Fold:
Amino acid sequence: MNKLIDCFIPRGNEEETKRNMQALENEELVSTVTVVDGNIKSSAVLKDIANKAEAEYTLLFLKGQFMQMGYLALQRMVQIADITKAAMTYTDHYNISADGKRQDAPTIDYQLGSLRDDFNFGSVLLFRTDALKEAASRMKADYKAAGFYDLRLKLAEKYQFSHINEYLYSEVELDTRKTGEKLFDYVDPKNRASQIEMEQAVTEYLKEIGGYLKPEFTPVDITAGVFPVEISVMIPVRNRIRTIRDAIESAQNQKTSFKYNIFVIENGPECHSTDGTTEAVDEMAAKDDRIVHIVTERRDLGVGGSWNLCAHDPRCGRFIVQLDSDDVYLDENTLQTYYDNFMKQKTAAIIGAYELTDINKNILPPGKIDHAEWTPENGRNNALRINGLGAPRGMYSPLLRDITMPNVNYGEDYAFMLALSRHYLIGRIYDPVYCCRRWDDNSDGDLSIEKENRNNTYKDRIRTWELMARIEMNKRNNK
Structure:
């Protein structure tokens, strides 16, 4: 049988490295196995791998831990790669815990909008060597952290990726944190340097494919029109009896120079909450006429639909400012801070910063989340890479009526802000004004891998649609 694969594996501990080498050397299709010292995701190491690879295919391990290839797995990967002519082929796999338990670890299909720098391909990748060499030749920067991200963006410019929906290898799960505990890794201050590299890589990619937007924005007159109040606090809710009073009281306690109201809109398949939330809000609304409590007969209303319902209500204010039903404003000055910044920045929307806390407002690491990695100058381009834009989100309500949010319970705000940023400037508040509270019933606290994959697939789809719109808009503008 032909020796079709050159393998490159990062050095792990002595035992893991030895086992990986022996296993691969015993594979019929393998020509060579090279142990790589240094960061295998750096530009320099990846360029060196591309230069040394000689076989028709190049196999790359992204982790130094032991990877147990499945029976005839490499033959299967080569078979599919040969059929699809894909530049990179990746597969589903198993995670094996320290106690020997096996868990499915499916991955998702790559699409145009799969621009997250932490897109999960798994740890075993098969490249067509000619495509690898060609893409590596176009890598201009010398990244320490973003080399692999840069490489796969270069590959995506010209080639297709192939996802094999089969479990072809096993790896030991090293990161055993819950989904919610991993959620903020990309904004941890210690990762700031790598975030800058990732932004540079995605910006270059967007320029290459025609999706980059210059810092030129459509002006918006946020003082136009007459509204019953200046700000409406928007709280979508369903079954949050443990936290809804905290949220509403946080809004009630705001000190402002203007009038505001508080929309509490219930959503979900039951039309109303089933745990006492509805009754609790009714009780509070009876004592405060600023509270607009809406319980519709609709059984299809999601969080995004609740925002749209608020924007189209005649009682809605000039601006809408987010407050999730399990979060609270940092102090009594949040709404005034938003209003003052709208008047000063004159932008279509403003996104603030927040403190990550527990249910009792005790600060959790990494603490302050200010999303400083996206700036007014390049924020709308970098927004296609990161998985969220921060909180709380405030917006000029007539634009929400025009653009609307998807009527879903995940990614609705991200989709709206991406669409809005295609034309308008999003302002920033870099000082915390909000407490994002992590607790045992957070909707994203500990997701199954299947639900996490559904969420990531949808956000990638949102990015795909947005990127298509931007490419088409640039084509029209450049005629």
